[in-house]
Design a protein that fits this description.
single chain, 8 helices, globular
Length: 235
């Protein structure tokens, strides 16, 4: 998505709190899925911040993409690809080569953490505009809608990459590479589908889309359980 960035220090702080605190709530929920072998707090923190940094890169790339494409469908698909690729790059740079990435579920944890960091700053930017104009009601409504919708789209999309990496965790490098590529393609497809489904829709239609997003969250919880039981083959 494209963003406008009003500048008012107090409003920026309020917007950041409105964007970050719900994301941290989601992060707390998903970290409980890895409570037997929790990841280092500093690496989780770096991953969350890395997701926020990815937003900055995505903004510049999306503005460039908007300049070279006037077709709405192409633009929305391109934006989805940019966001999923920048999030994945953050995961790859911060966590994938870490010695703490030692079990299949870790890939999902770090992908989700980066996604929530990305969503936190993105949500703050969206909420900032109505806060800056004094429209508190609109900012609250927008924050709630993004909490139950757009944030979960980021979460599910990135988690699909982590799931594919987890499936191939004990495989050779070729299969791992194919799994990562397949995961990124799946993430882009999921994200783009959401983007395209809310173009020119009514509020009721958008809520119906959010229902499917919540169904995806239930599926994601099931996938977590599937990843937990993956073990290396013994000879």
């Amino acid at each position: 998505m494209m963003y406008n960035l009003p500048v008012n220090t107090t409003n920026i702080i309020y917007a950041l709190l409105a964007g970050v605190l719900p994301a941290l709530l989601w992060l707390w929920f998903w970290l409980k899925e890895d409570n037997l072998h929790p990841e280092p707090r500093y690496l989780i923190t770096l991953s969350f911040i890395g997701g926020m940094v990815a937003v900055v890169l995505a903004i510049f790339l999306e503005k460039y993409a908007a300049d070279i494409s006037s077709d709405t469908t192409t633009r929305y698909i391109t934006w989805a690809a940019i966001e999923e690729i920048t999030k994945f790059l953050a995961v790859a740079f911060i966590a994938l080569r870490s010695r703490y990435m030692d079990e299949p579920i870790d890939a999902m944890i770090y992908c989700i953490t980066v996604a929530l960091g990305f969503a936190a700053l993105e949500n703050a930017i969206f909420i900032l505009s109505p806060i800056n104009t004094g429209d508190i009601t609109k900012s609250i409504v927008m924050g709630n809608m993004r909490f139950i919708g757009a944030t979960l789209v980021h979460l599910v999309s990135s988690a699909s990459i982590g799931f594919m990496i987890g499936l191939a965790f004990y495989k050779n490098i070729f299969i791992k590479t194919i799994a990562m590529i397949a995961g990124v393609i799946l993430a882009v497809a999921l994200h783009a589908s959401f983007n395209l489904s809310i173009i020119n829709t009514t509020a009721i239609d958008t809520l119906k889309v959010f229902v499917w997003v919540w169904i995806a969250i239930i599926i994601l919880i099931i996938l977590f359980e599937e990843i937990k039981v993956i073990k290396p083959k013994t000879t």
